[in-house]
Structure formats: structure tokens, C-alpha cells
Specification:
Elements: H1 10-24, H2 29-35, H3 44-57, H4 63-90, H5 95-103, H6 106-122, H7 126-163, H8 168-172, H9 175-180, H10 183-198, H11 206-219, H12 223-241, H13 244-271, H14 273-280, H15 288-295, H16 312-320, H17 336-368, H18 370-387, H19 396-411, H20 421-425, H21 429-458
Helix pairs in contact: 1-3, 1-7, 3-6, 4-6, 4-17, 6-7, 6-19, 7-11, 7-19, 10-11, 10-12, 10-18, 10-19, 12-18, 13-17, 13-18, 17-18, 18-19
Length: 459
């Protein structure tokens, strides 16, 4: 049976972008208020397309490579669930509470399956096709938001939002800005700006995509995300200046520094120094300081603190909503680092953060080479800044993008074709094997074309 190369197939590419677009439309406030996260299930269509493709063609290209990524990504999520189950049992939580807490992470498994399906079908194009689906959804939401104010009013409100650098009073008083305020996709657009500017060299339209991503990022401007983008760009530029061996050491040191920084950050949160600093410099916290102070009653910074189990914080704040004990009118901690510590405990948090940053970084270095590891760390540093005062660690599109970009970059043929012999020597065994496999495939295609032309000539 003829092999269809899905990354160049208009049918497969169109179906994938369509499924991502439809799922992204679920972030439109009208649909989100009515259906919640349900529309994201539509993205499972991408998994279905990949499954049908495998059954139809029997083409198992990249299956082994993709499976390694699947195991690595899933292991972090499974670790959180297993540790939480232990904590729930020790606290004698009900079965319904355990099931509810575990189900919160179910979307992450779907998320990973979509990433794996996209990587299998589209290789280095996986991130770009995902971006196009998300960008199309974001643009549609902006157009729907403009219906309420008109094009002129929408443009005026966007200018006010930009010139005020996302001031809370401007956002609250603009019906248009509130209508297009998409937390998850806005954060994601920052990731793609970094990706297209620094890593996606094989994409001919990368500067166009970077400009589109920047426009959508600024349309739903998040101040903390802007700071994260600046940090990530500096990190990417400095990393590119280093030699390959130095890059491997540099990214490993960075991962260890992230672990140390997060524990230091927790200490200043618990002491109240963090909120005091922000208040002293008139930085708007929007009620976060009240939540941080309240949550401090439920944990200690000590190796003896065992944790409360995943989703404890959300359930706690939700149970208080509408009562006299309500802290603020939100049910999220708006601090993913604090939330993970409270829920996983001292040692659970340590295992999780070591697994996420140190283990995954080492995995990328040894399996995919230092270039992919630097890409992984750069976009995760961007997201880390947002974790400090927001709750997007397990947002659907954010977690999908920071998984699919390193995977797509790993397959990037431009990255994998070094110009100097010494670069080949410094590649990992896995990289060299993949490069040799690609060179063999290219040679076979050339020989096939030559045979085809010779047959035509003979006729």
C-alpha cells in the first residue's frame, strides 16, 4: 500500500488543524461558561486520525522514538497521581474525593496523546500545525469579541490595554478585553514567539508566525508572561552563544538552580516577604496576598510536612465560596509553585520538581541532544515565571505546547544536519542514529527518483 506522508498531506494537516481549532474555541467565554473544559475533548480527533492512519497504512515509522517521549511525559503525571493517592489514603479521604482529584489530571493524558499523535504524523511540523489551530481559534474569538463593540471600539480598547500595560482597571472597564481574555492561549502565544524566533529555523514562514503569535500575545496581554518572555529570550540568546558541550552543562546547572529557586521562593512566600515587597512597590496583587496568607495555615516548610494531595487547594477554596469564611471571590491559588508544595508535601514536591526539571532535562540531553534540551529549558523558564503568580501549570494548551515544541524541534532536519565533523562527534548516539536513518531515507528517495526518470527515458 502506498505510504502517505502525513506532514505534507492537505487532508491530514487540515483535519488536525480543524480539531485543534474547534477545541480552542472552547476557550471563548460564552462556550467556556456553558461547557467548561468539555470542548477540549474534540482534540481527541487528532488521536483518532493518527490511529486510523496506522491501521490503514501499517506504517510504524517513528513509533519507537515517539513511544520514548510518551513514557517520559506520562511518568511525571503518573507520579503525581500515585503520590496523591498515598496522601489521600493516609488522610482517610473518601473514594469520591480520590476519584475527583484523579480525574482532574485525566485531560493531561488526552493532552499527551494528542502531542504523541501530532509528533507521529507531522514530526517537525507538529508544533506549527498546533499553533495554526490555536491561532485560528484565538483570532475567531477576537472577531466574536469585536462584534460587541465594533471594530473601532475593539481597536481603541486594545490600544488602551497596551499603553496601560494591562492595567486591571482598563481590563475591568472594557467589555471587549474581558471577552477576549483567554488566559491559556495568551500564555501559549508567548511560547510560540520564543520558538519561532530562536528555534524553528527550518520554517520558511517563521517570522510571519512569530509576528502573529506576538500580536495575539499582546492582544490578551499578561504582565507576568511578558517578564517571562524577556527572561526566556535572554536565556536562549546566551545559550546559543555557548559551545555544544557547554550548553549541556549550562542547561543541567539551570535545572538544579530552578529546584533551589523554587524552595527559596516558597520560603519568602511563607514568611510574607514576597507580598510585602510587592505591596511596597505598589504592584497590584488582586487578592493573591490574602490567599497566600490563608493557605500558609495549612502547610509548613519542613521535611516532616507530607502534603494534602492533588487539588486540595482548589477544593478548599471552592468549599468556602459563598460562605462567611470566603477569602476572595476566586477558587484558585494563583501560584502553582505554592499549590504543588501544599498538595505534594516537602518530599513529594522535591520528587516532582526534580523529575520535571532535572530528570526531563537529562533525558533530553542524552536522548535528543543538548539543542533540544536548551529548547525545552527555555520555554519552561518562560512558563516558570508565570507559575509564580498564576495557575496555568496544567492548563490544557500550555502543557500541550511545552511538550510538543521540544518533540517537534527534535525532529527538525535543519537542526540535525551539522556543517562540521566536530558537531557530529558531539551528538548523542541517539541523534547520530536518527541522522543516519534520515540520510539513508533521503538517498533512497533520490535513487527512486533516478530509477523513475530512467524508466521514463526508456519509454
Amino acid at each position: 500500500m502506498e505510504i502517505i506522508y502525513t506532514k505534507n498531506s492537505k487532508l491530514y494537516v487540515g483535519l488536525y488543524i480543524f480539531f485543534i481549532f474547534c477545541a480552542a474555541m472552547g476557550d471563548w467565554k460564552v462556550l467556556n461558561d456553558a461547557l467548561g473544559g468539555l470542548p477540549k475533548i474534540v482534540s481527541a480527533g487528532a488521536v483518532g486520525v493518527a490511529f486510523i492512519y496506522v491501521l490503514w497504512t501499517g506504517n510504524f515509522k517513528n513509533v519507537k522514538t515517539i513511544f520514548h517521549f510518551f513514557v517520559m511525559y506520562v511518568s511525571v503525571i503518573v507520579g503525581i497521581i500515585l503520590w496523591s493517592v498515598i496522601l489521600w489514603i493516609l488522610d482517610f479521604q473518601t473514594i469520591s474525593y480520590i476519584i475527583k482529584g484523579s480525574s482532574k489530571l485525566s485531560f493531561q493524558f488526552l493532552n499527551i496523546l494528542v502531542v504523541i499523535a501530532a509528533g507521529y504524523m507531522f514530526e517537525e511540523k507538529a508544533a506549527t500545525y498546533t499553533f495554526l489551530g490555536l491561532a485560528a481559534g484565538n483570532l475567531m474569538i477576537i472577531l466574536l469579541g469585536a462584534v460587541t463593540t465594533g471594530i473601532g471600539g475593539a481597536i481603541s480598547d486594545m490600544i488602551k490595554n497596551l499603553t496601560s500595560f494591562g492595567a486591571s482597571d482598563v481590563v475591568e472597564n472594557s467589555k471587549f478585553i474581558r471577552a477576549i481574555e483567554i488566559h491559556d492561549i495568551t500564555f501559549v502565544m508567548g511560547v510560540y514567539v520564543i520558538y519561532y524566533l530562536f528555534y524553528c529555523h527550518g520554517e520558511k514562514r517563521r517570522f510571519i508566525y512569530a509576528g502573529l503569535a506576538l500580536f495575539l500575545f499582546m492582544a490578551g496581554l499578561k504582565r507576568i508572561a511578558f517578564m517571562g518572555m524577556l527572561l526566556a529570550m535572554v536565556y536562549a540568546a546566551f545559550s546559543a552563544w555557548l559551545s555544544p558541550k557547554s550548553q549541556a552543562r549550562w542547561v543541567t546547572i539551570t535545572s538544579l538552580c530552578v529546584v533551589a529557586f523554587c524552595y527559596y521562593y516558597l520560603s519568602i512566600i511563607h514568611s510574607g516577604a514576597f507580598t510585602a515587597f510587592l505591596e511596597e512597590h505598589d504592584i497590584e496583587l488582586m487578592g493573591r496576598e490574602k490567599i497566600y496568607d490563608f493557605i500558609s495555615n495549612f502547610y509548613t516548610l519542613s521535611p516532616s510536612y507530607r502534603g494534602k494531595g492533588y487539588e486540595f487547594c482548589v477544593e478548599l477554596l471552592r468549599s468556602m465560596k459563598g460562605t462567611k469564611d470566603q477569602v476572595v471571590n476566586i477558587t484558585a491559588v494563583h501560584n502553582d509553585i505554592l499549590k504543588m508544595y501544599v498538595e505534594l508535601g516537602f518530599w513529594g514536591f522535591f520528587l516532582w520538581i526534580m523529575g520535571y526539571y532535572v530528570y526531563q532535562t537529562h533525558w533530553f540531553i542524552t536522548r535528543c541532544g543538548q539543542k533540544t534540551a536548551v529548547c525545552f529549558m527555555t520555554i519552561n523558564l518562560y512558563m516558570l515565571v508565570s507559575y509564580l503568580t498564576d495557575n496555568n501549570m496544567f492548563y490544557y494548551w500550555s502543557s500541550m505546547s511545552i511538550r510538543i515544541i521540544p518533540l517537534a524541534f527534535f525532529f527538525d532536519p535543519i537542526k540535525e544536519m551539522p556543517l562540521k565533523i566536530k558537531d557530529i562527534d558531539e551528538m548523542s548516539k541517539f541523534e547520530r542514529k536518527l541522522r543516519a536513518k534520515r540520510e539513508k531515507a533521503v538517498q533512497q528517495r533520490k535513487e527512486g527518483w533516478l530509477n523513475e526518470y530512467s524508466e521514463i527515458g526508456e519509454e
